[in-house]
Write a structure and sequence with these properties.
This protein is mainly alpha-helical. The chain is built from 3 helices and 2 strands.
Amino acid sequence: MNDSVDLSPAERDASAYLLGTAAEMSYRDDSPPQPTGALPVAQPGRPPQPEWAVGTATVMLAGGAASVPLGLSASLVMYVAGQTDPAALAVAGAAPVALVLACAVLAKAVGRATRDVVSAAPPVTVNNYAGPVTANSATSTSRTVFGRAASTSKTGR
């Protein structure tokens, strides 16, 4: 290496590396940090957020992106419907509302039918016996998750 040429520190390091005489490339200072009294400096970019906030933001962004095709199709319908008569516009505007109302009535009817089927009492069974009969009765009581559960069985003649 020629000592008469002035090299910057970066050029000296690069030439030492190329010549194979490079010094250690990493250094770790194990001394404890000295407090300086400086306040924290705001870093560029998004601040760290909890996982639930990131998940919620992702869902909101996905919902916003999903609404774009609906908005574009609604804009196209309004553009095309703008050249029709007001009665056709009224029908086109009322159709989604009628569809939602019909779905609500159907859901209510299905819910009522399900509730009626579940609450229907089982049929009463009458058994007629000829001869000695033994009647058994069982009682079961469950109170709470932390309470006690009692179960008794009585046999009578």
